[in-house]
Amino acid sequence: MKYIKIGVVFAVCLLLYFIPSLLFKADPAYYKSLNLPSYAPPSILFAIAWPILYVIFSMYLAIKIIHHDLSKEMMVYFFINYIISFFFNKVFFIDHNLFLTFAVTFCCFLTGLFLFITSFKQSKKEFYVFVPYLLWTLFASILMAHIYLIN
Question: Closest Cα partner for 12 from 59, 52, 70?
Fold first, then answer.
């Protein structure tokens, strides 16, 4: 029964992470139309990396929620991170606002850093869950800053 509950919570969390991509369609052609730095990955990499990170976050949340082990502080950071990341596709693909896209990306990195630090304080094992997200959002922040500056 516990695994069914975890599965349901996981599915709900994962669905929440995919709502923005359903509302604000990604346009790989727009990304390719920009002046990109030499280290910019192909657009397909984003379509692979983000879902993997969403699966990691959703599984972490599902397990913590079912075990009543998600602190209020972590819940707040996850919520803030979700709200900020919700608008990435809109500001980038719909509004074409590169500065705001950088700001959103950097704020995702910052809230990811808060999640990392808070989880480290709570469990010396669990903080590793946030390392891929931190590395990816740091890279994405640097990339978006560079794209903003050269466009």
Answer: 59
Name the strand (E) or helix (H) holding 26. Answer: none
Question: Between 43-66 and 72-86, two packed helices, what is the crossing angle to 10 degrees?
Answer: 150
CA geometry: angle 50, 55, 61, nearest 5 deg: 125
Q: Give residue-wise pLDDT tens across range 95-112.
A: 999 999 999 999 999 999
State how far the Cα of 120 lies from the Cα of 104, in Å rounded to an integer.
Answer: 24
Alpha carbons 34 and 43: distance in angstroms, whole number: 12
**Span 37-86, pLDDT tens digits:** 999 999 999 999 999 999 999 999 999 999 999 999 999 999 999 999 99
